[in-house]
Design brief:
The protein has 504 residues and is an alpha+beta fold. Helices cover 34% and strands 14% of the residues. A hairpin with a 4-residue loop joins strand 18 and strand 19. InterPro entries: Aminopep_P_N, Creatin/AminoP/Spt16_N, Creatinase/aminopeptidase-like, Pept_M24, X-Pro_dipept-like.
Length: 504
């Protein structure tokens, strides 16, 4: 693959609020198609299969809100976005395995589209914009693929069908009128294409860095403006405004989690039944898990800080326990390292801090055996990140999901590879639904100092999350927000960020 230009990489390093949103090079998606083609041909060669047939993907369709005519804002299906970068709905895309040619099929729009929705673009527009070999209409799929096919018998289609191990949902294979004229392979494409998404190219990393830059900047702005008496949704609103206003990020990677007080112990707070609507109180901790998406590629950042801008001793104890775990994991990350081992490292460091703070008592190794860490951190340490917040590829064939508490929530149990982007998000929470049974259990009750645990009953929790690139010899943190308690206090008091600008 050709190296990206200096301009393409530099677009990720400038402060997003000081420039217009960067133009995204379509070479990124050309490279993604080339990567798939190479991997698929290698796979076919290993099983002595001919290099004939077409990869065929169906893009996303616009959805209305239930039975109404209200159309939800469209966002492309992720595998289709990865290969073609198409932002419009209703497309199909194909890659000829024999020749490497890429083909888009555009919907044939009715004449009144031009009245209500804008200019009807010719196929030449899509060919130039998306840098594909040819573009036809969706009603020409059958004839075009039959004409292009050079093998014997019915033309072969490699369709996308496989399990997403994060959602337990299956990818939907392409459907179209006349598909019965083709042979269909539903097993080969999904694992090969999923593995292509695991390690990122330089151009992909540039987009993930842009998403991190603008999201980091937005987190700092929210941190500066947070005050007791506000509503949680005001923090969400400030974040969304900043990333869209200054970064051109129309989509978020996921629903914002703006949790304060006891809500910060609710791991996926912010959903419709818990809609970021509590009033912030003096003395609360705020846990804000928010990330913008830039040209399909995402970010996933969590900052935790005191609403009033000053850490108490109890808040510092829990916060620094999580920060020490966060920093230790990032320092230990490199190719070949087991992600399960990284989770255990984070757990052990948090348990050590809780033991020093007299929340826990007893032998740390015994606590690890009894999985006490999962009482305070029931979620996994992190997940692959890219076009999806939880990017696929966490459990390819041959990688088993652990079964122990905490570890079973890991979204991958792989060894790290150069080019992976993975979130590092240790947490420490005081969740009654976990603490009460653990303090009653014959195996774990001895570890808890009940009097001190009771002090933290309404504390909530702390999570610190950064997006980290695995490099050849270590790792690089792509997230740029205040992390040390003194940095957070300085920024919330009106100090500059980044801090190195203060001395300039």
């Amino acid at each position: 693959m050709a190296k990206p230009s200096r301009e393409a990489i530099s677009m990720a390093s400038t402060s997003p609020s000081s420039l217009s949103p960067s133009k995204v090079p379509m070479e990124l998606h050309v490279s993604n198609r080339q990567k798939l083609l190479k991997s698929l041909r290698q796979h076919l060669s290993k099983s002595s299969r001919p290099h004939h047939g077409f990869v065929l993907l169906q893009g996303g369709e616009e959805q209305t809100r239930y039975c109404t005519d209200h159309i939800e804002l469209f966002r492309q299906e992720s595998y289709f976005a990865y290969l073609f970068g198409v932002r419009e709905p209703g497309f199909y895309g194909a890659i000829d395995i024999a020749t490497g040619k890429s083909i888009l099929f555009a919907p044939r729009l009715p004449a009144n589209y031009a009245v209500w929705l804008g200019e009807i673009k010719p196929v030449s527009y899509f060919q130039e914009r998306y840098m594909v070999s040819m573009v036809y209409y969706t009603d020409e799929i059958v004839q075009l693929l039959v004409d292009q096919y050079k093998g014997s018998g019915k033309p072969l289609l490699f369709l996308l069908h496989g399990l997403n191990t994060d959602s337990n949902n299956f990818s939907k294979p392409a459907e179209f009128k006349g598909i019965e004229n083709f042979e269909r392979d539903l097993t080969t494409l999904h694992p090969v294409l999923t593995e292509c998404r695991v390690c990122k190219s330089d151009l992909e990393l540039a987009l993930i860095q842009i998403a991190n830059n603008i999201s980091s900047e937005a987190h700092v702005e929210v941190m500066r403006k947070t005050k007791a008496g506000m509503k949680e949704y005001q923090l969400e609103s400030m974040f969304l405004h900043h990333t869209y206003m200054y970064g051109g990020c129309r989509h978020c990677s996921y629903t914002c989690i703006c949790a304060t007080g006891e809500n910060s112990a609710v791991l996926h707070y912010g959903h419709a039944a818990a809609p970021n609507d509590r009033i912030l109180e003096d003395g609360d901790m705020a846990l804000l898990d928010m990330g913008a998406e830039y040209s399909f590629y995402g970010s996933d950042i969590t900052c935790t800080f005191p609403v009033n801008g000053k850490f108490t001793s109890d808040q510092s104890l829990i916060y620094n326990a999580v920060l020490d775990a966060h920093n230790a994991v990032i320092a230990a990350m490199k190719p070949g390292v087991s992600w399960v081992d990284m989770h255990k490292l984070a757990e052990k460091i948090i348990l050590e801090s809780l033991e020093k703070g007299n929340i826990l008592v007893g032998n740390l190794d015994d606590m690890m055996v009894e999985r006490v860490g999962a009482v305070f951190m029931p979620h996994g340490l992190g997940h692959l990140l890219g076009i999806d917040t939880h990017d696929p590829g966490g459990y390819p064939k041959g990688i088993e999901r652990p079964k122990e508490p905490g570890l079973k929530s890991l979204r991958t149990a792989r060894q790290l590879l150069e080019g992976m982007v993975i979130t590092v998000e240790p947490g420490c929470y005081f969740i009654d639904a976990l603490l009460v049974p653990a303090m009653k259990s014959a195996n774990t009750s001895k570890f808890f100092n009940r009097e001190i645990v009771d002090k933290f009953k309404n504390f909530g929790g702390v999570r610190i999350e950064s997006d980290v690139l695995v490099t050849a010899n270590g790792s690089k943190n792509m997230t740029k927000v205040p992390r040390e308690t003194w940095e957070i206090e300085a920024v919330m008091a009106g100090g500059p960020w980044p801090l190195n600008k203060a001395s300039g």
